[in-house]
Amino acid sequence: MYCPRRFGLLELNQDWAENAFVVKANIMHERVHSGMHERYSKEKIELSSVSLYHDGLDLYGVADCVEFIRNKTGAYIEQLGDNFNVNIVEYKPRRPASGTVNETDAIQVFAQKLCADHIWKCKSAGYVYYGDAHRRVKLDFNEEYDKYYSLLQKLIFEMNNVLESGKIPDRIKGQKCSGCSMKNVCIPQNKKYTVRDLVKEECV
Ligand code: SF4
Predict the structure, then answer these.
(1) How far is ligand 1, taken at its centre, from the CA of residue 143, in Å?
(2) At what angle do helices 145-165 and 103-120 cross, to 10 degrees?
(3) Is 3.90.320 the CATH classification of the domain at 4-203?
């Protein structure tokens, strides 16, 4: 959703590059996925690195954290032998400058929610946890379910088209690239060279 060209570079070319934002996010996720946040108590079970999937939508991913809150009216989770409310928690290193949750983050959590609902036959809630502010924000998927569902379907369709075509999409006009770690991989490949440009570069 952030950039179709970036998706093509990652998935078709297997390109990868890191910048400070990526490194910061990696450190945070390493900590989360190390299991040090896993907790078991009477009221709540918190698991990290939870594999999620949805057969119908052909989705697979690994959630940062899934919380199971014991509740008699919640869904019966066979593997845990009790009824629970289910919360998906996605970790992000910093709050967006806009003050509201980025739509790219929200759609990521929504995809995880659909997977969790599919696996545990529940109605899970979604949160984004911001490391810099030490606070979490609840996403209102009940109000905006249809909007997110059609957006996710559109994105899955577009991603499948890129994968099937085998062609890396061109840069979209107006694409914001300043925070993108792939800039050095992406932009030279998109630049048109003339023989004169190449000779000039060789001479510098
Ligand atoms: S540099 Fe810009 S166009 Fe290229 S992958 Fe990154 S965001 Fe997309």
Answers:
(1) 32
(2) 100
(3) yes
